[in-house]
Amino acid sequence: MDLNSLHTFISVVRAGGFAAAARETDVPRSSVSSKIRNLEKDLGVRLFKRSTRAFSLTAEGQALYQHSSNASISLDNAIASLTGGSETFAGEIRMTLPADFPPQIVAAAIAEYRQSHPAVQFHIRSTNDVLDLVSSNVDLALRIGSSNSQNAIIHRGIDMNIGLFGSRR
Questions:
Q1: Residue of 98, 86, 94 lying closest to 120 (CA atoms)
Q2: What is the pLDDT of residues 89-140, one digit of tens each?
Q3: Residue 63 domain flag
Q4: Would you say residue 96 lies in a domain?
């Protein structure tokens, strides 16, 4: 069974008709009708009693709607939470940086980021080893110098002047 057809069925019931569902979902009415026909064929039952001007749910259609409408909302919410449907980010960012990198720079950047996204957690690994990002399960690597040979997306982060200083003592 095609879950898109089930989603279309729920849209038709909520919108109160095929044409209204087509307008709300921005698909042609013929596509809505086709998906409903395919769903009825896959399930082996009629879901709607149709006339030229109206429709109503059959007993099977009513049962399917009652059992699937809340599940559809839950799926939509789950997908929205994964695809940025909300403005708040959450989760974990695993990061590696050179052992001798100034920690106050990273701490300030993380603190600023977490003001907007407090549900994001950072796990930092300080090492001068060039890690395989995939096998080490690293999301973000901060490196100094030339880029490494891994297939990675590389962005220039900051320009810094670093100097070595000494005295004559």
A1: 94
A2: 778 889 988 888 888 888 888 888 888 888 888 999 998 887 888 888 888 8
A3: yes
A4: yes
More confident residue, 168 or 9: 9
Which residue, 69, 10, 67, 9, is CA-closest to 39?
A: 9
User: pTM for the complete prediction?
Assistant: 0.48
Statement to judge: residues 65 and 106 lie in one domain: no
The Cα-based distances of 163 to 117, 160, 166 in angstroms read: 35, 10, 10
3-state helix vs strand vs coil in the chain, percent to 5? 45, 15, 40
Domain count, the chain: 2
DSSP state of 101: S
Place of tokens 């082996």: 44
Contact 150, 129 (CB under 8 A): no
* Structural domain for 109, as ranges: 90-141
Closest residue by Cα to residue 27 from 44, 60, 5: 5
